Amino acid sequence: MLADKLQPFLNRYDEISKLLTSDAVLGDIAQMTKLSKEQRSLEATVNAARKYLALLAQMEENRALLDDAELGELAKEELKELEANLPLVEEEIKLLLLPKDPNDERNIFLELRAGTGGDEAALFVGDLASAYMRFAENRGYKFEIVSSSEGSVGGFKELILLVKGQGAYSRLKFEGGTHRVQRVPATESQGRVHTSAITVAVMPEVDDAEIQINPNDLKIDVMRSSGHGGQSVNTTDSAVRVTHIPTGLVVVNQDGKSQHKNKDAAIKVLKARLYEMQESERLEKERKERSEQVGTGDRSGRIRTYNYPQNRISDHRVNLTLYRLDAIMAGGLMDEIIDPLIAHFQAEQIAKAGL
């Protein structure tokens, strides 16, 4: 019964309330901070639990009055309203009881990289990055281009965005994977549709203390920044290439004019990639024991197709097809795809948890 699952949360919340006013804790700043943080994390669940239990009690009271000559009709009407509200409160509680993703509230690095399709893939990197930036603006997130490598006819061979905002990871974590685009290139004289692909990786921004890197494991090269067509955009050697020797990971940053800032930005991206590697290893172990395959950051699976001639966008993980590709891309209306993905994932988690 759902009420039984809620009782431990209520008990722990009350226990923390008593501890915070006890002599054993008063004056211990570290302990008070820890307990206060835990209590805040329980508040939403506890408030929903109290609302749910009060609703059950009200329903029971009204059932007891159904045969009353004077109050029976009123009780019947109230009971009908309460029963209609019950599934909504139950759904809210089920979502609150799901295990929390520790990365959900983090900022993220979005790494877009051209794959098959050459110039057309590079152009689509630019198009999809623009859609993500409009999406970020719509949600009040801040963003910046951390690193970029331009394509030969426009677009980008690679582009890394830092998206900052509460819940950025929770909203965009399902964007990782292969994005396929089908459209007629501007240079195609016969009007034939070409298929190309880009990959997107979603990496949580991590604190410096979370990923420790031995300076001896880094090889740092400086070079002159180059712009479109190989022309120099800076007269100083400000571009930085950081190689993590144990893993072979390489990050190049040349967007800033300061060598120091480029180095710092490159190391931040490197730490995010190392964290992503650790998370991928952990998730892979978990996937062997679970059925859901929505995925969070896997670059190998084809997750979505953008078909421009048909104005169609399809997400293959949830069999979602929308015929408004132009509006979604132009307006950054990614929520129209993201919301069904989140709902699908939550439904699988609820079923797995037996709620």
Describe what is shown at a glance.
By secondary structure, the protein is an alpha+beta fold. It has helices at residues 2-20, 29-64, 72-97, 119-138, 168-172, 259-287, 325-331, 335-353; strands at 108-114, 142-150, 156-164, 177-183, 194-204, 218-223, 239-244, 249-253, 302-307, 312-315, 320-322. The protein has eight helices and eleven strands.
Chain-wise SSE layout:
Elements: H1 2-20, H2 29-64, H3 72-97, E1 108-114, H4 119-138, E2 142-150, E3 156-164, H5 168-172, E4 177-183, E5 194-204, E6 218-223, E7 239-244, E8 249-253, H6 259-287, E9 302-307, E10 312-315, E11 320-322, H7 325-331, H8 335-353
Parallel strand pairs: 4-9
Antiparallel strand pairs: 1-3, 1-5, 2-3, 4-5, 6-7, 7-8, 9-10, 10-11
Mean pLDDT: 85
Structural class: alpha+beta
Terminal CA distance: 9 Å
Strand-residue proportion: 15-25%
Helix content: 40-55%
DSSP summary, beta strand count: 11
Q: What is the chains' assembly state?
A: single chain
Written as H for each helix and E for each strand, in order along the chain, the element string is: HHHEHEEHEEEEEHEEEHH
Low-confidence parts: 228-235, 289-299
If strands are numbered along the chain, what order do they take across the biggest sheet? 2-3-1-5-4-9-10-11
Count the helices. How many? 8
The biggest sheet amounts to: 8 strands, mixed
Mass-distribution shape: flat
Cα-based radius of gyration, to the nearest Å: 26 Å
Description:
The chain is an alpha+beta fold and 355 residues long. 45% of the residues lie in helices and 21% in strands. It has eight helices and eleven strands. An eight-stranded mixed sheet has the order 2-3-1-5-4-9-10-11. The chain has a three-stranded antiparallel sheet with strand order 6-7-8, covered by helices on one side. A hairpin with a 4-residue loop joins strand 9 and strand 10 (312-315). Helix 4 (119-138) crosses helix 7. The longest helix is centred in the N-terminal third of the chain and has 36 residues, at 29-64. Residues 228-235 and 289-299 have low confidence and may be disordered.
